[in-house]
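Attaching the record inline, Q. Sequence:
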Amino acid sequence: MFKNKAVSYIIFGVSLAVFLTSATMIVKYFYDGSKVNREFEKLTEITEITEDNTSSDEVISEDDEAISKIQLLQAMNEECIGWITIEDTPVNYPVTHTPDDPEKYLRRDFNNKYSAAGVPFVDARCDLQSPNIIIYGHNMKNRSMFGSLRNYLKDEYLKA
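Structure, as predicted:
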């Protein structure tokens, strides 16, 4: 009888440990995801500030505005080469390029700290002057990064 009770306690203890570890990992995943989203929102806000700083008499072309935004981001991270936005999706991120370390931003944020989401980055083999550039980014389960592009598999979303 004592042996059965001991086995039951061991099984319960192991099960509890597995449950608590799993729950912690799930909470951490969603916390990290929201943290990444907040960081990208801050970068978006920084680039939008330049619009508010121009006077109404000043006319700036879209290209000049985009260049000034990228220069602002490059002051923060010299490996930033652009910004990718897809209308009507959450895709709105800086893009990096590190040909000497092709997957540097696979698991790093814009500030070079560890991040499961990483930052979209250009394939090291791409010529930046080419009209065709391959950009890598994560297909996150929480639909952040490029995860929201799965919506295009639905006919009604695709048509809209």
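The first helix runs from residue 2 to 52. The chain is about 45% helix and 10% strand.

More tomorrow.
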